[in-house]
Amino acid sequence: MSHQKLKVAIVGASGFTGSELARLLLNHPDVSISIITSESHVGKPFSDLHPQFFNRLDIPLESADQVSKMDLDVIFLALPHGVSMDFVAKWKDLGAKIIDLSGDFRLSSKDVYEEWYQKKHSYPIGFSEAVYGLPELFAKKIADARLVANPGCYPTASILSLAPLYAKQLVEEGSVIIDAKSGLTGAGVKANPTTHFSNVNENFKAYGIAGHRHTIEIEEQLGGIAGSNTTVQFTPHLLPVDRGILVTSYAKLKTEMNQEKLTEIYAEYYQDKPFVRLRNQAPGIKDVRGSHFCDVFPTWDERTQKVISISVIDNLLKGAASQAVHNMNLMFDLPEATGLNHIPLKP
Amino acid sequence: MSHQKLKVAIVGASGFTGSELARLLLNHPDVSISIITSESHVGKPFSDLHPQFFNRLDIPLESADQVSKMDLDVIFLALPHGVSMDFVAKWKDLGAKIIDLSGDFRLSSKDVYEEWYQKKHSYPIGFSEAVYGLPELFAKKIADARLVANPGCYPTASILSLAPLYAKQLVEEGSVIIDAKSGLTGAGVKANPTTHFSNVNENFKAYGIAGHRHTIEIEEQLGGIAGSNTTVQFTPHLLPVDRGILVTSYAKLKTEMNQEKLTEIYAEYYQDKPFVRLRNQAPGIKDVRGSHFCDVFPTWDERTQKVISISVIDNLLKGAASQAVHNMNLMFDLPEATGLNHIPLKP
Amino acid sequence: MSHQKLKVAIVGASGFTGSELARLLLNHPDVSISIITSESHVGKPFSDLHPQFFNRLDIPLESADQVSKMDLDVIFLALPHGVSMDFVAKWKDLGAKIIDLSGDFRLSSKDVYEEWYQKKHSYPIGFSEAVYGLPELFAKKIADARLVANPGCYPTASILSLAPLYAKQLVEEGSVIIDAKSGLTGAGVKANPTTHFSNVNENFKAYGIAGHRHTIEIEEQLGGIAGSNTTVQFTPHLLPVDRGILVTSYAKLKTEMNQEKLTEIYAEYYQDKPFVRLRNQAPGIKDVRGSHFCDVFPTWDERTQKVISISVIDNLLKGAASQAVHNMNLMFDLPEATGLNHIPLKP
Amino acid sequence: MSHQKLKVAIVGASGFTGSELARLLLNHPDVSISIITSESHVGKPFSDLHPQFFNRLDIPLESADQVSKMDLDVIFLALPHGVSMDFVAKWKDLGAKIIDLSGDFRLSSKDVYEEWYQKKHSYPIGFSEAVYGLPELFAKKIADARLVANPGCYPTASILSLAPLYAKQLVEEGSVIIDAKSGLTGAGVKANPTTHFSNVNENFKAYGIAGHRHTIEIEEQLGGIAGSNTTVQFTPHLLPVDRGILVTSYAKLKTEMNQEKLTEIYAEYYQDKPFVRLRNQAPGIKDVRGSHFCDVFPTWDERTQKVISISVIDNLLKGAASQAVHNMNLMFDLPEATGLNHIPLKP
């Protein structure tokens, strides 16, 4: 690590991932925030949008146009799907590495993207360059990447709940059910009936049944690990909490299994992954809130002969902002845990 | 219906089902509450335990010993598992009909009970007499019953999510996953770490993985409907809300299916069931809160060739107290909806 | 009471008070809902906007233009401030009585209104006709009214917390502080940053400091009771709950006081008011949720020589919809509690 | 600051302040946690009690008896009131400095303590030695202290909301009302009806009306600042959130005032206090959650001629654990912000 701090841009300041990136990067010892952009709030102090930063990060927001005029090491794109791709195309020769937190480069190809996102892709060449930024699986490729597609929140939790089984090709195809539950911040900062307090509080419901976009992202990654195509049933639900994803994954296996063997498979797979914690009891989302941890808890049900694997993350951190910082650490050869050692905030 | 009101006893006043029974019965036009018992609060006004009843139901709590001295039509047992059975045994010749809200007589036999509840059963003869009180399935048998075993909350939602498929013997054995989520009142009124606000609020977790007692209750009833044994994977989770259960059930079928046919199967099965609402969009738990409704929403996923069937209930009502009142209405030949026409309280 | 049911219109269906009115009126034994209007949803079933009514109230929404063509006994205006006044003007000769749930006719005059609402008033003559619809204070005048201004939610709780002291002219002028806390439904159904889940959940803040419109409504009514002008300090806060207002009122008195005397003053004032409950311990908002009760708890602090009077209501019911129904009962000479006997929904 | 880390003990590990102390001290660059004690959990890993620490702080809990055998620089007492005093007495000659988070040494004398806590004090000599640990007021005395009485959560927020006015002797005696609202963690980790989820969630109520112990702590400190006795009306309420205190303080002044002058008085008083943020809009508790900030917002109401001053803190941090760490920094001549630069966790 040089004494020169990394100069970073955060593009897209109004959302939750933008403010979480700022929070993490502000206290990161090797980073200096050069610019934060927001087209609709140019000139306003960042802390006007996010009052928790009052007195700590009051720099004025700028237009994204300014980014190309600056000397930057890394650009974080905290933009909606369908918007990121244009900036990636525009800034591909700037010299700065790009970490894209949208879904624009997470899938394998233009065709798959356009089918699942129902949107034209404007920079298909990016698919070949982009590396899927899940450090537990692709640390080496990430280290060499110039463009990282930061994973979706549900895919992060879902993939980590099942990866050890797919890696050993143990999963019976067609048997996987991923029943996922997310806090409301996953629905974004925009005010609409979905995010209205009275529709969320004391409520719980499923959405995107049989068609959520994260399905294909999970299938491509799990299939890639196993070396063969896979189809999963993925159902997301909306929890009346701010943060957290809990995924309950079910699978039949091709071979015999018992609890001890199952635990061993997971322990081995995650042995050098400092942010995956193999738990000895069912984890709650609050056990990881405010942290970069993914807690995993696999159970073998002898009676039904199935695996039930539960994983939890903070959707804004391991599911977005801290994962992006983890990727940055890898891309710039910093110790991977730098700036990420938050103990979960509980209660 | 005679002009004579039914004289009822509520045995066990301190819990949530006790107070919900009181709330429903107090406004039921054909009922007069004769006695409410609580061994630990004898002499105290009922409203001391449940201040929402202040000025409306201040009668002093009595000992259960008083019940046998009274002229009663029906006794509601709102007692813990393992306690109810003794009262059923003791009061079997009183003349009053008994509706037991505990799990003591829900299963098929002493042996099954003792395996899953890890407890000696003191009145095994009750199993042959007890009728499983799910009105949508057993209205006629309930009408003739002297002892009704009021169903568990999870089983009510789970069974109603899948019954139409089991009734037509469409379900592929071994394929059923029931991923269930319940509000905290399901954990009871007792103060312990599980019910401490800070462990529930902003949290979400699974419990009873691979071994919850309600599993066997669901399996026995669904198997009974189909006429053959069935095994299901049942996983409950704890929601940070007061009330509500949402069940997401998954099944493979033995035959071809499409959405239209699936909807038709459900519509037909529930056509004369006033409290099951076949919804045209994914229901939330708040859509039924404070009411006796069970909302059901079945989806056929053409891509995965699976059924995803979602159902929601208020766990304290359709999952306990209002179900008990529904059973009472059937047992005494009252119109089945009497006293149960609450519109859900939303927001 | 005649056997002819009252024919009612609900004008403004999309908000919370509209749906709560529908819920109460649907189960009111002497009412038939003739029409529900919503300009932006004409033709849609009411239950599309409020799915809790699915299968129970699916009638299509109509335009307010239809109201004048119908034979109606009473019109409920569940409209925003500034909109109601035009309909009151337009329908003044229809023959139907009008209960306006907005703030348009709650104050004493056009001038006061225009100062506090910063809006031109289009029908100032209405001020002289309108009766302030707080049944505990003005039951007789309400019975004779053709136009009732249904009180604000904060004023209802605030006035009832202090009325007995003002009625006896005991309050030292300038000493009254009303620190009020309301659930989020008070902020309305509209999606905006204020009602976004993430801004409300786990949060709490004051708003409208030193200038909230309800201040003058409280001052005019309390002053009216005492027969002299009064100024109060009123500060509202936003609670992370759906329903409920709790008001903590502080006052110095002109005379000596003790707890016994204070309790007696309140008991006497509210002795024939069935929906005000003088509690013997500090009430919580959940003790009245879903009901028409206002629970009041006055304390004399001997050490500081001040009164602390706490009151709680359900802001959508006693603070809006059930108060309107109570007023309707009085206006049509029905027993005042008709259709209002809900026990609070707790937990 | 030497390179030698401070060796610290946390006495009392099971509560929320114990775990928050551990979280802060674990990431404090100049601290090494030598021992954590819990009499009821000796031998268990700390992370068994607080699973958020899994893999990060798994050291076994020890008995407090071990403390006196160790070489320690500072001992944090995270114990209940009435228990701390015995340990302070016992360990007074150990050489380690003591920071007591209980209420045992916050007041001026044995007599005052015994009147308000209704408990015998076993170590009255401690009152003369103890320094009240509010860094904004007493930084210099804290730096020299051997025993610090860490302030109560309500007093911290209350005192900081009014200190600038008392310091200038502007407050009209007898006029101060402090209406305070706290998250549930203020009620402690113990499971009882008060902390049961169903009594807190969607609820809100006052408690300790006219007699809460923090009243005298506030009065003694504010009186001390002004140099004369003061009496305040203090009413705490319980919020359905985990963390956060918001205090709404009201005062009449002896002199003329306007908004500009008021803001200036506060700005001047807090100019060198890095953790008090004088806000330009009403703060919410979430603006400071997870941080050491106290946000203050004073308003002059020209109409009523009163000050309304709002302050917010995280009750577990600025109201307990981070305040204790701040005190430690001062006592050991570390830069006062060391280990305390957390940006609030929002949303």
Automatic annotation (TrEMBL), chains A, B, C, D:
Residues 7-145 form the Semialdehyde dehydrogenase NAD-binding domain. Keywords: Amino-acid biosynthesis, Arginine biosynthesis, Cytoplasm, NADP, Oxidoreductase. SUPFAM superfamilies: Glyceraldehyde-3-phosphate dehydrogenase-like, C-terminal domain (SSF55347), NAD(P)-binding Rossmann-fold domains (SSF51735). It comes from the Bacteria. One of its GO terms (biological process) is L-arginine biosynthetic process. One of its GO terms (molecular function) is NAD binding. Belongs to the NAGSA dehydrogenase family. Type 1 subfamily. Catalyzes the NADPH-dependent reduction of N-acetyl-5-glutamyl phosphate to yield N-acetyl-L-glutamate 5-semialdehyde. NCBIfam families: argC. This is N-acetyl-gamma-glutamyl-phosphate reductase. It comes from Algoriphagus machipongonensis.
